[in-house]
Amino acid sequence: MCTSKSRSFCILNGYGGCMQEEWRIQMLPIQFLFLTVWPVIDMRLRCKSEGKGYPPGVPVDVTRVLELDVTRWELQGLDSAAQPSDFTLGVRGALYPDRRGLRTRLKGQLEMDINFVLPPMLALIPEDVRRSVAESVLKRLVENMKHKVNGSLLSDFSEFKRERAEILRS
After folding, report:
1. Any idea where the domains of the chain sit in the sequence?
2. DSSP 3-state of 65
3. Torsion angle of alpha carbons 20, 18, 90, 149, nearest 10°?
4. InterPro entries from the xrefs (predicted)?
């Protein structure tokens, strides 16, 4: 189900009869040094079941897996002088239920690969300062993504429970 949310919206729903959606997500702004950037990502969500095509590390006895894959990204708010000349972002992950006895927990894994070449104007900043700023920015980016995913999961689960209760009442 695709619903409209203030900072994210669905751009693909159930393509080709398979269980997948693609969302455009406007992340919270990231500030570093004198710049502010608004990351925007397109994330594909794909549901897999019956142990078929599960990512490495996910037990095959898990009933369903939700795969996450960033398919497109952009950094809004940077002028051309501050844009990195080469920037690649790869994010892949999976969420799945971990059932132990009567208890079920949500487990996940996330792999992120970021590569970039600094724009010439940032090359003037000492390397130790750039490194600490980069680590801080990346940490905030990961926390932002984690917060966004957790918030969406809670919201979607609440909506699922409400819809299920309505179906049961009918």
Report:
1. 8-169
2. strand
3. 20
4. DUF1997 (IPR018971)
For residue 77, the SS3 value is coil
Pairing of β 103-117 and β 86-100: antiparallel
C-alpha angle 83-87-91 in degrees, rounded to nearest 5: 130
In the chain, the largest separation of any two C-alpha atoms, in whole Å, equals: 67
pLDDT tens-digit series, residues 37-83: 888 888 888 888 877 888 888 888 888 888 888 888 888 887 766 66
CB atoms within 10 A of CB 43: 23
How many C-beta neighbours within 10 Å does residue 159 have? 12
Distance between CA atoms of 124 and 104, rounded to whole angstroms? 51
The pTM score is 0.62
Query: Which residue, among 140, 25, 39, 142, has the nearest Cα to 84 in the 3D structure?
Result: 39
33: its two tokens? 């040094």
Share of the chain above pLDDT 90, in %: 0
The total of other beta-carbon atoms located within 10 Å of residue 27's CB is 20
